[in-house]
Write a structure and sequence with these properties.
The protein is of the alpha/beta class. It folds into 2 domains: about 1-270, TIM Barrel; about 295-415, no CATH class. About 45% of the residues lie in helices and about 10% in strands. It has 17 helices and 12 strands. The protein has helices at about 15-20, 30-35, 35-45, 75-85, 90-95, 110-130, 135-140, 165-180, 200-210, 230-245, 255-260, 305-315, 325-330, 340, 345-360, 365-385, 405-415; strands at about 1-5, 25-30, 50-55, 150-155, 160, 185, 190-195, 215-220, 250, 265-270, 295, 300-305. The strands form 3 sheets. The protein has an 8-stranded parallel sheet. A two-stranded parallel sheet has the order 4-6. Helix 3 (about 35-45) runs parallel beside helix 7. The radius of gyration is 22 Å and the shape is globular. It starts with a strand and ends with a helix. The structure holds zinc ion (ZN). Zinc ion (ZN) binds next to helix 13 and helix 15.
């Protein structure tokens, strides 16, 4: 299964270069490319052998006006740049909304020009920005001048709460219009909805509507792998299997191990940031919050704070990771976990090694084998994890107190 890294912070550039063998490609959010054009383009071009896509981030226009504003009430500059790139009247329409106002879909009703601009931005921006004065010296440093096109163009997309929601046909229209424009690059739409939108009838409609595309990206809004129920996992699997049966390749725009397991349902790739965005909600402001410093524990397919990891690997030394990074830093000694706190880049490198192993490992597994293993891990470690002191806000949801989520996953995959 392919792993695509969602680019978030320029401070990670060196690390991504060092660990590039762990990843298959890149996802670049459009607001970052619009805001830091030259440096982001140079980064993309410097990894010319890695295919990339640009996420047009059009769902942000569904957020309340407040989300687009900076501290002094003006428009945040990354949003302003996106608006400028996509639509003549968009910035003005946002600023004339009431304080709690939301944009109506009708803003985009004459979609042709909007679709053309969104697609054009993706197809051309890296090339344009790489030609900026300032960019050339960095390109020379990396020894590349070859600008490559994205592997796919993503039409404007919006979150829908059911197929009866007016944002659903708008996204579908944008996808169809973009495809009709032709061009050499594959057009791959994003299907963005919550699990609540995925009943059997709606899944059939979605699969039918998107069957003309060879590839789609799935973003299940707020699909938190540690708190999702087995019945919701089953819904998402049905969508993936339905698309696959219709000849549509699907990739997850955000995902963790739960969606890696859907390789077994026909999903071909997933993307995420280095220590964050294994799931994402559409109503979060892009770029808000930094990545927490936490350690990925491969056996439980989740992160824990360093203090919890410290306790758990002292209790269960067999949980000490044996990836090349951990071999070097820990060498089997749980006391050395503290060294990860001194150098958080080690947390990132370790995670990328673990993710590569997971993505490779799933290709020779089966739903039965996964379910069996998850239940074994639950049985062996649940009590230890459940009784850990829990000082971290991010592990406050009930299923993260212990390892119940692994049983939910097993329930959803067992026998299917
Ligand atoms: Zn490791």
């Amino acid at each position: 299964m392919k792993v695509h890294l969602r680019f978030g912070m320029h401070r990670d550039v060196k690390l991504i270069h060092d660990e590039k063998d762990r990843i298959d490609g890149l996802v670049v959010p459009a607001h970052i490319l619009a805001h830091q054009s030259a440096s982001t383009s140079v980064f993309v071009t410097s990894l010319a052998e890695k295919p990339y896509i640009i996420d047009p981030m059009t769902f942000v226009f569904q957020n309340a006006k407040e989300a687009h504003l900076n501290d002094v009430g003006g428009m945040r500059s990354s949003i302003e740049k996106l608006c400028g790139a996509y639509h003549d009247k968009l910035a003005e329409r946002i600023m004339t909304l009431g304080p709690d106002g939301f944009m109506a879909p009708d803003v985009f009703s004459e979609s042709d020009e909007f679709c053309e601009k969104v697609a054009g931005f993706q197809a051309e921006q890296v090339g344009k920005a790489s030609a900026m004065s300032g960019a050339s010296k960095y390109l020379k440093r990396y020894g590349t001048t070859q600008v490559t096109a994205p592997r796919a163009v993503i039409p404007p997309y919006f979150r829908f709460s059911s197929v009866g929601d007016e944002w659903y046909p708008l996204s579908l229209t944008c996808a169809t219009l973009t495809r009709q424009m032709g061009g050499d690059i594959e057009v791959a739409p994003v299907i963005c909805c919550a699990t609540s939108a995925l009943n059997d009838t709606d899944i059939k409609t979605i699969v039918g509507d998107y069957a003309e595309f060879g590839r789609v990206f799935l973003w299940i809004d707020g699909y938190v792998q540690t708190s999702v129920t087995s019945s919701n996992i089953t819904r998402v699997r049905s969508l993936i299997k339905g698309l696959s049966a219709a000849g549509v390749e699907s990739e997850a725009l955000y995902g963790g191990y739960l969606l890696i397991m859907s390789f077994l349902d026909g999903m071909s790739a997933l993307s995420h940031g280095i220590l964050y965005t294994q799931h994402k909600s559409t109503d979060l402001v892009p770029g808000s919050g930094g990545a927490p410093e936490r350690y990925y524990i491969p056996a439980i397919h989740e992160f824990r704070s360093l203090s919890q990891t410290d306790q758990i690997i002292h209790q269960h030394q067999e949980l000490i990771c044996d990836c090349p990074v951990c071999e070097e830093v820990l060498g089997g000694d749980p006391d050395k976990i503290i060294l990860f706190g001194d150098d958080p880049d080690l947390l990132r490198r370790h995670f990328l090694h673990c993710r590569r192993r997971e993505a490779d490992g799933i290709t020779t597994s089966s739903p039965e084998a996964e379910a069996k293993r998850l239940r074994q891990v639950f049985k062996k470690y649940h009590d230890s994890f459940r009784t850990l002191p829990n000082p971290d806000a991010f592990v406050s949801s009930s299923k993260m107190q212990g390892l119940e989520y692994l049983n939910e996953w097993a329930d959803a995959f067992e026998g299917s």
